[in-house]
């Protein structure tokens, strides 16, 4: 029986959250009814009762003009909360805008903004608030502006950190490939997905703002007479604290309780959002001379000597050559870290900075990509290439409905109207065997199962008319039954559209079932390429080891499963010889020289000196 999902407890289901919410509710009620009910008592001057202590007539005593201190404290609730709310709004809006700027500005200018934010965060907040208040002018206006400016750097740092944490998500990369303007990527894709922690921080900052404003008024830099807030009341009572100690009780208690209530509520929301057990909180590289050979017949993708390098001598992809023809599925298989996904990223031209990409030839639909200008290249990639990533959860924006995300491809790239794009989204979802597609387009990604999300991502790739589909381990996170459904959908899509497909996986059994040809990668290179139906005739020791590690119905369950000894070298540690030599039982001194990929039969090539 499937166990239902367990949702985090709500913030008001624990004593701390409930108590803080009750305190804030009382404060809001006092702010609303305080001035009408006690405004007269708070303003009534009584020369005969100056600086008196607690009495039946005045429960907490009077001030230097004989006015009731309890009434004045209750009336001051409205101004105190109002100023704190305004300061928090200034700090939140200003901080979010400042933290989002690096995502909109050029890299150098963005780094300068981040450096400025770091300096402001290191500066003491109260001193920054006091400095701003002095410049803006003493009084409530200067104090609010000062506290708002003091809160902004923290929000800016949080916004920048959260933005950077999701900047590499697949749906962000897809939006950029579709040439979505930077400001729209920020507003539509980034900010909705980081809103929750910003809201939680706002609740806690309200308490900080209230305490800061009270401190400013207490020091004489905030609210000025005849207006008064809790800090101003403390300032007026401080001179008589030794004579009538009860004069500071009401405003001091109000400041402490209100500040504590907002901070506890923010903490309760943070814990509820985190869930149980979780703490709150293209440049090119030198390559061989471009080849002028004619395009391979029927090829939708032709890559020669593709190389990807990163600073420090890290080269995850080394002179990879691949050809994918119409209606053909080519499998790219190998252990994790062999360079499969980076090869796909290089073909789609989404290698992250500071990666360097170079090739002797990269042709998509017979067009040389390196010969195109930036806009032309993006248009060709956007219309002819579809990428299906490993994790559909990161490929789909969790803050947007499925239909809107699919329709965005058609509206931005093909110029379709919203109605046309929506109709196409429904049709594409139906094509990948999603039941009730008209209902699914109105749902959010979290409402779909893993298999449905993966099929929705495939449908997104089909919103145009792609000639090449790159599926990067699309079945890894799915159970066996759903894996077979996704594989069937991919096979049907290729057969129906006659598109070519590059299917990337570490599971050689899945690849052999789905693909027409297989390319085996090891340490950044293709070490063998052969037809899928000739897999049992593989010649490279690594390919044979992968096949040998697969259990079947005849496997002796009393013996340990077959494994490949040793481990694959990291991209920065690959030597000049055969990278597999240290793990190979057939290795000889000749293997200190790297073997080239050579043809050994029809559609079969292998890079091994000792291949039988």
> Distance N terminus to C terminus?
51 Å
Binned strand content: 5-15%
Rg: 33 Å
Q: Based on the structure given, which CATH architecture of the domain at 299-392 and 468-551 and 562-606 is correct?
A: 3-Layer(aba) Sandwich
Q: CATH first level of the domain at 299-392 and 468-551 and 562-606: which class? A: Alpha Beta
Going across the major beta sheet, what is the strand order?
8-9-10-4-11-12-14-13
Proportion of helical residues: 40-55%
Give the averaged pLDDT, no decimals: 81
Number of helices: 19
Which homologous superfamily in CATH is the superfamily of the domain at 299-392 and 468-551 and 562-606? P-loop containing nucleotide triphosphate hydrolases
- The global form is elongated
What profile does the largest beta sheet have?
8 strands, mixed
CATH fold-level topology of the domain at 299-392 and 468-551 and 562-606: Rossmann fold
How many strand units?
Answer: 14
Query: Ranges with pLDDT <50 over ≥5 residues?
Result: 1-9, 274-291
List the helices and strands and how they pair.
Layout (H helix, E strand, L loop, with lengths): L14 H29 L25 H36 L2 H16 L2 H12 L3 H27 L3 H8 L4 H37 L11 H9 L10 H26 L8 E2 L14 E12 L3 E12 L3 E5 L6 H8 L8 E3 L2 E4 L2 E2 L5 H11 E4 L3 H4 L6 H13 L3 H14 L5 H4 L9 H12 L6 E5 L7 H18 L2 E6 L2 H7 L2 E6 L2 E7 L9 H8 L49 E4 L2 E3 L6
Parallel strand pairs: 1-5, 4-10, 4-11, 8-9, 9-10
Antiparallel strand pairs: 2-3, 2-5, 2-6, 6-7, 11-12, 12-14, 13-14
Helix pairs in contact: 1-2, 1-9, 2-3, 2-5, 2-7, 3-5, 4-5, 5-7, 6-7, 7-8, 7-9, 8-9, 13-14, 13-16, 14-16, 16-17
């Amino acid at each position: 029986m499937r166990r239902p999902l367990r949702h985090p407890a709500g913030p008001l289901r624990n004593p701390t959250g409930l108590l803080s919410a009750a305190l804030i509710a009382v404060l809001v009620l006092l702010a609303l009814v305080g001035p009408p009910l006690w405004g007269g008592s708070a303003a009534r001057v009584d020369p005969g009762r100056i600086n008196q202590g607690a009495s039946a007539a005045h429960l907490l005593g009077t001030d230097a003009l004989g006015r009731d201190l309890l009434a004045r404290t209750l009336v001051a609730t409205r101004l105190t909360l109002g100023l704190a709310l305004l300061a928090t709004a200034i700090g939140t809006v200003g901080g979010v805008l400042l933290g989002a700027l690096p995502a909109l500005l050029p890299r150098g200018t963005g780094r300068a903004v981040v450096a400025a934010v770091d300096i402001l965060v290191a500066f003491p907040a109260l001193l920054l608030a006091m400095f701003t208040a002095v410049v803006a002018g003493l009084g409530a206006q200067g104090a609010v502006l000062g506290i708002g400016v003091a809160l902004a750097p923290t929000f800016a740092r949080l916004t920048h950190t959260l933005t950077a944490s999701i900047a590499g998500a697949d749906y962000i990369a897809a939006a950029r490939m579709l040439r979505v303007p930077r400001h729209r990527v920020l507003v539509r894709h980034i900010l909705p997905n980081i809103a929750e922690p910003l809201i939680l921080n706002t609740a806690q900052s309200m308490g900080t703002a209230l305490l800061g404003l009270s401190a400013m008024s207490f020091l004489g830099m905030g609210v000025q007479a005849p207006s008064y807030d809790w800090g101003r009341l403390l300032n007026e009572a401080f001179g008589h604290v030794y004579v009538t100690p009860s004069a500071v009780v009401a405003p001091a208690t109000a400041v402490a309780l209100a500040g504590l209530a907002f901070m506890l509520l923010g903490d309760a929301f943070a814990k509820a959002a985190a869930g149980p057990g979780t703490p709150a909180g293209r440049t090119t590289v030198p390559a061989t001379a471009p080849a002028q050979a004619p395009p391979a017949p029927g090829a939708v993708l032709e890559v020669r000597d593709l190389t990807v390098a990163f600073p420090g001598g890290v080269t995850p992809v080394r002179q990879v050559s691949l050809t994918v023809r119409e209606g053909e599925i080519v499998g790219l298989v190998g252990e994790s870290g062999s360079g499969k996904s980076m090869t796909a990223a290089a073909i789609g031209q989404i290698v992250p900075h500071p990666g360097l990409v170079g090739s002797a030839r990269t042709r998509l639909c017979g067009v040389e990509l390196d010969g195109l200008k930036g806009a032309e290249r993006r248009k060709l990639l956007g219309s002819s290439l579809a990428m299906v990533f490993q994790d559909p959860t990161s490929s789909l924006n969790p803050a947007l409905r499925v239909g809107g995300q699919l329709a965005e491809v058609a509206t931005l790239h093909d110029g379709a109207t919203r109605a046309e794009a929506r109709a196409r989204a429904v049709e594409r979802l139906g094509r990948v065997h999603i039941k009730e597609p008209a209902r699914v387009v109105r749902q959010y990604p979290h409402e779909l199962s893993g298999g449905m999300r993966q099929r929705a991502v495939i449908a997104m790739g089909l919103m145009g008319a792609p000639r090449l589909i790159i599926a990067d381990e699309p079945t890894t996170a799915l159970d066996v039954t759903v894996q077979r459904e996704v594989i069937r959908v991919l096979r049907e899509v290729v057969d129906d559209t006659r598109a070519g497909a590059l299917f990337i996986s570490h599971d050689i059994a899945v690849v052999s079932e789905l693909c027409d040809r297989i390319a085996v990668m090891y340490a950044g290179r293709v070490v063998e390429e052969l037809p899928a139906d000739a897999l049992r005739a593989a010649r490279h020791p690594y390919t044979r080891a992968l096949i040998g590690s697969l259990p079947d119905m005849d496997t002796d369950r009393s013996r340990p499963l077959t494994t490949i000894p040793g481990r694959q070298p990291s991209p920065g540690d690959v030597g000049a010889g055969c990278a597999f030599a240290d793990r190979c039982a057939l290795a000889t001194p000749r293997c200190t020289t790297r073997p080239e990929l050579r043809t050994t039969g029809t559609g079969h090539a292998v890079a091994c000196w000792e291949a039988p």
